[in-house]
């Protein structure tokens, strides 16, 4: 019975990934991760889209339970203003336990995996555009430093700090790292929930956590190189 329930989820999950395979929608989710709640005017401005286009994208995600829509009554306005925020069950709605895939038919395993990879590709492209903005921030900051005093003021300002660590991990190190990260993640999410009890606050900082499978990537690159060589 459990396997059947899991199997029935797959077409729904695939449709969700197809919906998310859109740069404007990924950008909208990114802004909602940062600000928690945005109204239609604010979100349209961030996306650089008309309100009608923004409503279209958000309606698609709302229909699949990814985001929540609410109306804000504006004094003197005939129509209420739309507000958007992420669904509390966003992660559960999008992802399923990879351990459950073994119970599925082969076609569903392949279909689900391919849609995840397509979404990951677009997600990385969207993040890469954000990284270009960080590069521009660095270039602008470099030009603003004219003296040692300017440099000291810049580096002692907490708002300018971008933590960057490259940590090579062994197999055992990776397993221990994931345990530590899971603990850190649970504490951070608990902090966010505690903050939300007080007020709906903006979150103008975005923390990335990513472990790159360097070995796999290098082996893939060498494999491609061998295929491309002529004997």
TrEMBL record:
Organism domain of life: Archaea
Protein name: HTH arsR-type domain-containing protein
